[in-house]
Design brief:
Elements (H helix, E strand, L loop, with lengths): L2 H10 L5 E5 L3 H12 L7 H4 E5 L5 H9 L8 E6 L17 H9 L5 E7 L9 H9 L1 E4 L5 H14 L3 E2 L1 H11 L3 H14 L5 E2 L1 H7 L4 H13 L3 H13 L4 H23 L4 H8 L3 H11 L4 H20 L4 H14 L4
Parallel strand pairs: 1-4, 1-5, 2-3, 3-4, 6-7
Helix pairs in contact: 1-2, 4-5, 5-6, 7-9, 8-10, 11-12, 11-13, 12-17, 13-15, 13-16, 14-15, 16-17
Length: 342
């Protein structure tokens, strides 16, 4: 189930005894935690809510808490975060976990306790017996990163719940300036709502004024100008990045990263891989894959490779000489513009 379904269930039905919130979208994990906390009255939370980080605390302590009766209340809430032992990952944490007692508890949970696993991972290790038992006993809540469509809908719904509206152009601007990252989108909503407090309507200019473009966004514009061999615009955008106090090495590193991604997308897309598969395989947000594929359609693999190799040369020069970064970029653009397009 998703977070919305969880909210509906917790407000209309008695909670289950065990939940597993799985996914890497931090803001969704936080939202789920807040929903579970609402199960316990504020005045009872000190005595009836336990939080345990598995990277620092033995799971036996959480189980002992879960087995205890509520203190002057109807139920106890136990939150277990970062249960790395459910994954195939190796942790540097040197904590001795009694997983046998955890498995025993899962098979016979305390009815008055709501035990919640907050697992900030893409997946668990399904080969482990403990994971099989957990998945059988727990209600699973999805906290995986939202795609562009889902993120937009969540933002619209959240604003509507507070009595606000956002027009389509403003929503698109918010998506563009946050790379459709739901966490970044929600983080910017409070100041947008404050600005639109009286009208309750958020427009495109509000987003432009309040939501800053990331370095990746600015570099993406620069990448497009470079590929079009637009020397004037490329040099202007590069100088703007320098004027904003971005270190030349960092600017170049992001440029190299962007062109590397475009090359990967060009090659893998030619092999028939879908947008979703590309995002998963390259560990890149689907929105960046979408923009990248739109770009690669207009340029040859040779053009992408030539730009990438030219930027690698700049990186070496930046690390080994004191030459002016703007001058080096200008020379790169001159050389790149003279190379074959296809």
């Amino acid at each position: 189930m998703d977070i919305k379904t969880l909210e509906k269930q917790l407000t209309t039905k008695a909670p289950a005894m065990i939940y597993l919130v799985l996914g890497t979208q931090h803001v969704l994990l936080q939202q789920a935690e807040q929903l579970f906390l609402k199960l316990i009255p504020q005045e009872q939370q000190v005595m009836n809510v336990g939080r345990y980080d598995m990277e620092t605390t033995p799971v036996a302590m959480a189980i002992d808490d879960a087995m205890s009766a509520p203190f002057f209340g109807d139920r106890r809430l136990v939150l277990i975060s970062k249960p790395y032992f459910l994954t195939g990952e190796k942790s540097k944490a040197k904590v001795d976990h009694d997983l046998a007692s955890l498995r025993k508890y899962l098979q016979n949970p305390e009815p008055s306790t709501v035990l919640v696993f907050l697992a900030p991972y893409e997946k668990l290790d399904g080969r482990k017996g403990l994971v099989k038992v957990l998945k059988k006993q727990a209600v699973q809540v999805d906290a995986a990163p939202l795609n562009e469509r889902q993120a937009k809908q969540q933002v619209v719904d959240e604003l509507a719940g507070d009595g606000y509206q956002i027009d389509n152009s403003a929503l698109e601007a918010l998506v563009q300036r946050t790379n459709a990252d739901y966490g970044l989108m929600t983080a910017n909503l409070p100041k947008l709502k404050l600005l639109a407090y009286q009208s309750k309507k958020i427009n495109q200019q509000d987003v432009i004024d309040l939501v800053p473009q990331t370095l990746d966004d600015n570099v993406f514009d620069l990448v497009t100008a470079v590929l079009k061999r637009d020397q004037k615009r490329s040099l202007s955008l590069y100088q703007q990045l320098l004027d904003s106090q971005e270190p030349p090495l960092r600017i170049n590193a992001v440029l190299v990263s962007q062109f590397r991604l475009l090359i990967q997308l060009k090659v893998l897309n030619a092999r028939g891989l879908s947008q979703g598969t590309l995002a998963s395989r390259l560990h890149v947000h689907p929105y960046r894959v979408k923009l990248g594929l739109q770009t690669t359609r207009h340029f040859s693999l040779l053009s992408l490779e030539n730009a990438y190799l030219g930027l690698i040369k700049i990186e070496k020069a930046l690390k080994t000489s004191q030459r002016d970064p703007a001058l080096m970029f200008q020379l790169f653009m001159l050389q790149y513009s003279q190379q074959k397009v296809s």
